[in-house]
Request: fold
Amino acid sequence: MSKDSTPGRLERSLKIFADVRAGEGPTALLLLLVVFLVLASYYCVKPLREGWLAVTDIQGLSKIQIKAYSSFGQSIVLVAFAPLMAFLAGHLRRRTLLTGATVLFSLTLVFFWLVHPADGEPSSAALGVVFYLWVGIFGVTTVTLSWAFATDMYSVGRGERLLPLVAIGASAGAVGGSWFAESLLRYLDVWDLLIVSIVPLVAALALVYAIDRRGQTGVPLRPERRQEPAAPGGPGPFEMILKTRYLLLAAMLALIVNWVNTNGENVLFAYLQDVLGEQVRDLRLEDRAEVSRLLKLETTQFYSTLYFWVNLVALIMQAFFASRIVKLGGFVAILFFTPFIALISYGMMATFPALALIKLLKIAENSSNYSFNNTARQILWLPTPATMVYKAKMTIDTAFVRIGDGLAAVSVLAVSALVASPIPILVGLNVVLVGGWLVIARLLAKENQRLVNAPATAGVSP
Reply:
């Protein structure tokens, strides 16, 4: 073995997590740090979404209905937002695209910090809903852009080996962000987390610049690739998705996965608000400021704790199991883990409905989703060209993911109109949806295998 092909100390130390070869370690580690920082930023902000919604009152609507309408509105906004992102990706360099997104979201974080509701004062319904919509856009856009950048760096073979390692950064960042947010609540007002979250976001952008100069193994990317748009050429994103079987299946998978997950989140949120409502009645609180403070603090702390445990379990799964599953069974094996866990979880929820059990089952489902399923979702893009990664992937990970949210919202509203307690029916619906998830996953696995085995010149055909 020549000196150039001998793994260095860094590569040897990373082999416990993935098959890292000579020269690959620094870039893989930097990409890991990018997704770590982006997820840490998001998870400083995400618990505030539920906290703000908990103190948002709209006459005639329950908390779960407010959440459902907000989710539906989020899906509509992102369907309109996705073509704009695809247009920008077709005209801006990768670094410029990520820089613009970072600056825009940093400014909006400052804006929401300035206008947040004070304790004891009723939150503006419009502002609470706008913040909910914005957090969804912030999360999917920043995370999708960081993953698009990582996926665009690698070929199929190298990506299947290294993306499970990079994904450790996502799980670790979610854990770190959740833990950091929960710890800071002892010293800061909850809304100060909006300002704190800007720091990791800007740090991630600095690393993107370093990676873009370095390339995969320390050999700089060809100058023309660094100067050309992120997604050169090609049709619009929706046309691309609808005319390509592989992309359409990927879109359907993203939609149904999020439909299932958001239905589960709505069930958990409804149970939590019922429990907190009983707590308010038991304490006989009459002061509006005290009730508002209790709902905001208890909801935010509940979700901060939930996200911490979800992401800690996801980190363990990602660090020690994901790459080994891919190595032993490939894309197919990692693709099917999460739907089987979801099927078991919702079957148990239907049998033993209780807040504590639902919380545990959501930890199991979400941790698998954030580790195994997230890894599968990134690997499926390795056989596709950059145009599809920055246009179709971004559209699927924003618009189609949030369409799943919208369908979950429609489910809540439709069931709520028919029965007083929608929770049992929503759990049953999820069992049916997971069956559809398994069917789509099977079709997508076949298409992926066809693309990987096809000649390099074949591309992704309709």
About this structure: The domain at 18-453 is CATH 1.20.1250.20 (Growth Hormone; Chain: A;). The mean pLDDT is 85.
